[in-house]
From TrEMBL:
Record keyword Ribonucleoprotein present: no
Main location: membrane
Record-linked InterPro entries: Adaptor_comp_med_subunit, AP2_Mu_C_sf, Clathrin_mu_CS, Longin-like_dom_sf, MHD
Residues in MHD domain copies: 64-191
Gene Ontology BP annotations: intracellular protein transport; vesicle-mediated transport
Key words of the record: Membrane, Protein transport, Transport
Lineage: Eukaryota, Metazoa, Ecdysozoa, Arthropoda, Chelicerata
UniProt cross-references to PROSITE patterns, sorted A to Z: CLAT_ADAPTOR_M_1, MHD
Subcellular location field: Endomembrane system
Keyword Protein transport belongs to the record: yes
Protein name per its UniProtKB record: MHD domain-containing protein
Length: 191
């Protein structure tokens, strides 16, 4: 613990001596902490560490450029006996794996972004563009990260993308049977 405090204090002194920005991204701190464990600190930062895009290194190159977006949604719903949705809320996340060369500038749009009640974004998202156009515009970090999390409340009455059918039967005292059938619906999010 004392070693860690010493390293943090020493790193702070380096920043003050070099007159570097006082607000520093975690990747810069990680760079210095790694260097401390190797018992040397470079006199200069690696290129691009104090840029306007501190979450992305400069000069990134890949043989195959890839971008994967995983949309993960947790549905909390009440469905009546006829299969109609009484109430439904959705908590969603967009997780990314980005392996793109250079400094990519990406945009992601949604069919109906006004359904999102409560959103939180990775620092790479340009919030002003989201506020004005409801478009996610961003320069992504390299690797895995959570781009966005959101909530869709019950007041929006979104059609859930699955159907649920059930059958409950009782045969004798203490015995019964519950059958639940679940499958995909082809509604594309419309009621």
């Amino acid at each position: 613990m004392i070693d860690s405090l010493f390293i943090i204090n020493q790193t702070g002194d380096i920043f003050m001596e070099k007159h570097w920005k006082s607000v520093v991204h975690r990747s810069v701190c990680d760079y210095f902490l790694e260097a401390q464990h190797r018992n040397h600190v470079s006199a200069t930062l690696p290129s691009g560490q104090l840029s306007n895009v501190p979450w992305r290194r400069t000069g990134v190159k890949y043989n195959n450029n890839e971008a994967y977006f995983d949309v993960i949604e947790e549905i909390d719903a009440i469905i009546d006996k006829s299969g109609s949705v009484v109430s439904a809320e959705i908590q969603g996340y967009i997780d990314c794996c980005i392996k793109l060369s250079g400094m990519p500038d990406l945009s992601l749009s949604f069919v109906n972004p006004r359904l999102f009640d409560d959103v939180s974004f990775h620092p790479c998202v340009r919030f002003r563009r989201w506020e004005s156009e409801r478009v996610l515009s961003f320069v992504p970090p390299d690797g895995n990260f959570r781009l966005m999390s959101y909530h869709i409340g019950a007041q929006n009455m979104v059609s859930i993308p699955i159907y649920i059918r059930h059958h409950i039967s009782f045969k004798e005292v203490g015995a019964g049977k519950i059958e639940i059938q679940i499958g995909p619906k082809q509604t594309m999010g419309k009621l």
